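Re: the request from the purification team.
They wanted to know what the chain is likely to look like in 3D before they choose a buffer screen. I agreed to run a prediction and write the result into the notebook, where they can find it.
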Amino acid sequence: MPKKRSGGGLSATQQAAKFLGVSVLAGAVMAGIALPAAGALGLAAKGSVQGFDDIPANLKSPQLSQRTRILDSQGNQIAQVYSRDRTVVDLKEISPYMQKAIVAIEDSRYYQHGAIDLKGVLRALNKNAVSGGVAQGASTLTQQLVKNYFIEEAGDDPTKVAQATQQTLGRKVKELKYAIQLEEKLGKKKILENYLNITFFGEQAYGIEAASQRYFSQHAKNLNLPQSALLAGIVQSPSRYDPVNDEAEATKRRNVVLERMAQLGDISQAEADKAKEAPLGLHVTQPKNGCITAAKGAGFFCKYVENVFLTDPTFGKTREARAKLWNQGGLTIRTTLEPQAQDSVQTSIKDHVYKADSVAAAATLVEPGTGKILAMGQSKPYGYNKNETEYNFSVDRDYGGSNYGFPTGSTFKPFVAAAAIEGGKPATQEYSAPYKMNYPSPVQQCDGKQWVNTENEQVENESESEVGPYQMKKAMAKSINTYFVQLISDIGLCPVVKMTDALHVHQGDGSKLPQTPSIALGAIGLSPLTMASAYATFADRGMYCTPVAIESITQKVGNEQKSLAVPKSTCSRAMSEKTADTINTLLRGVVDSGTGQEAGLDDRESAGKTGTTDSRKNAWFVGYTPNLAGAVWVGSAKQNIEMTNITIGGVFHSEVYGADTPGPIWKDAMTGALEGKQSESFNLINIPDEDDHDKGNGNGDGNGHGRGDDTGGLIGGLIGGGTGDGGTTDGSTTAGTTTPNPTFSFPDGFIQGNENGGNNGNGGNRG
């Protein structure tokens, strides 16, 4: 008996005997002869393996990873994503030349032997004996299929991949047992089909259909003889025989395959010789994988869809389970993205903000009543080069956005107003609203504690001319900071927190809003998607709907399409219809005659709010029609650029406002998105203008007490107790003390008063 080598290993002869033993064992199992466990024959050497009989009886064929297609709402492809580029096809969809070529070069006796080719094993013995291992495996296509199953199951786990490909007798034993099962269960044709669909052909192409598309830009069923021979030759070493990078080596390998096919009688020698003379004829299609390749500027929306999939428990209990399903692919995901709306958003952003600008813009459109995200875009394209970014400025951090979102400025004020109105405050609520003041203190919080202005923090309005008193309508139109600070102090922080919770308004990192009065002025970072969804609640008369991006998903399983459950939008009442209608009336005034006039739509009713933060680092416009809501943000992602004396989209701005930069983006985006769509109306309510009752111009006899601001004029003066003519005669600064409170009002501009100001009872600009 041969002796062991000094190192304790087996001699070459012993290795050969053991390898032969495995083969004989496999043959015996095929014949149905019961033999002792493999361990009894000493078959566990070099690569620990359990006894042959202890190996699980059934090999579960893995679901092959394939391409996933992401579509818009009309069925147009946005992008395709995959961990492995593969499209599974039936054998009848694969060229007969390809079927013959792969068999000829990889397992020429495929149709003559069973799961194991004993002649091939014996042929390999000498080489294996000399090497002391398994240098030549003599694997059949069936055994290779089993190995590929193990590799597929390993996924991207390097440890599992190494175990699946290690050259050990232990792995061979598993291959043999499972190969036997596959031969009995599937038959030759199905095994060949599965093999051609699973094997790697280089250049990121898995399976023959992907390989045919990659190298020749055609379907596998159309492959001719030289093309088939080329692809069959790649399998043995995809890197060595890569025709894209080494045409000469690939050509030599192709010709080897052709010669082998001729030897086997699959083709004539003349056919082989003619094919050898043919050029490779490559027509390479570059891999297009991932959201970076998305059409219509929808890369960020595409990535948002992926992040929703990986985050939502609808697709699996754990992130690991969801990631496995995503990487497995074979999905067709129809999304909510509307082509018309997406085109309009991207065009508008491109027209107003250049990708090379020092600041960026992001916009999101949401459908009220459904929560569907119809468009999502930004000025910095999705990518990793200069003036590109992988951050989606429209969404929260957990979905690929910035860490904290962006301060919203005065676009937060409608939430404070909604909380106040829902709690019973009238839309005519008035506060002194001076130009500058300390934050009122203390302010009640939800937990019974109080916020106290220990640092004597101050707030001021945009302009020194903005001095109250103001009522809510004008305060909203002019975006008076001190008014809303007084309002939030009056009602307390808790009603505002409850309202923003109902509107799902949260910071960009997902955390709740802090309970400080400064939230009234938009000091906290939020995402455009959060803002658009919240404002959509106003449009839908108080019903909040969670945003959704996915309409349906099907998965290809074998030859069948399986439907998967998808997350649905859930709608809930956030405020009464009356409150929403009141906010709609207030915000319509913003675009009609307030700070948002540049954003107002020309062909339909619209409402919205401007916002600009401290040092002009952020500018917003958030607005809506009854059937579409949208939010636009402009600023620096790093919050390090003050938008003064700055050029954006080729336009110089001494100071950027929410109205003059985000406003026009919103207007153009909404106009295009709504073109051809029905024009709907708000349910507006009557909110008396301040000057319709107690702000007339007092005149000469001292009995009037007008505080005319917008609509005083003749009638206001008379109601105030004066006998004047509505502003043609200067009223005394020591006018009487009576302040009327009429029960009727006149529309804006009904009677024009004078524009003299101060001496006319503090008269305003319009009657």
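For the purification team: Residues 534 and 706 are 39 Å apart (CA to CA).
Please add any questions underneath this entry.
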